[in-house]
Design goal:
By secondary structure, this protein is an alpha+beta fold. The protein contains three helices and ten strands, in the order βαβααββββββββ.
Length: about 200
């Protein structure tokens, strides 16, 4: 039998370890400033739904360059999916996250966000991968027993990442991070929004 994929979810990835190495010391410095950290996520992060990193600091040139890189990658991602981007007023909103041993992030989505992304700067041994949750919520009513897990039947799929990996997805896709087992998992997270 031939199987056709209907309504697939698009996960975009790119790899730039040189940019990650350049950004890591900048982001470590930002994370050292307790005044820039928010308690919102429950671990070290500058993410605050009421303000962006741009509102908190004078953005260093390295992060300005990253925002341009992220905007280009997000625009390419959206175009490959068939969206019109030239009619949008696109903006990248950044935050810096550091997970330490035992930190995690439950499954969540980004309402009103076109693309959400994560750029991995430090992923030592024991760093938790990103996971993506099945967005087909009605599938939860399926009671058919599984012989084995496949891309069609898995509720959660782990995305292996390393330093320099960029992961993009549409804001509706549920994702999270299981318990981290390293001392320093540092990422740049960002949302692409339409400011029209």
């Amino acid at each position: 039998m031939q199987i056709r994929n209907v309504y697939p979810c698009a996960l975009g990835t790119a790899y730039n370890p040189f940019l990650a190495a350049k950004l890591l010391p900048v982001c470590r410095k930002i994370l050292e400033d307790e005044e820039k950290l928010s308690p919102y996520l429950g671990y070290k992060s500058t993410y605050d739904p009421a303000r962006s990193l741009d509102d908190m600091i004078d953005i260093p040139q390295e992060l300005v360059d990253f925002k341009e890189f992220a905007l280009k990658e997000c625009t390419n991602y959206l175009k490959q999916l068939g969206y019109m981007t030239d009619v949008l007023n696109l903006e990248i909103q950044l935050a810096v996250n550091k997970m330490e041993y035992g930190d995690s992030h439950q499954t969540h989505v980004h309402p009103g966000v076109l693309v959400t992304g994560t750029f991995y700067l430090s992923t030592p041994k024991g760093s938790s991968p990103l996971y993506v949750a099945d967005p087909r919520t009605l599938r939860q009513m399926n009671t058919t027993p599984l012989a084995y897990e496949t891309d069609y039947t898995a509720d959660i799929v782990d995305i292996d990442v390393k330093e320099g990996t960029l992961v993009l997805m549409e804001g509706y896709m549920g994702h999270g991070v299981r318990k981290n087992l390293s001392e320093e998992r540092i990422v740049l997270i960002f949302n692409l929004v339409d400011k029209r």
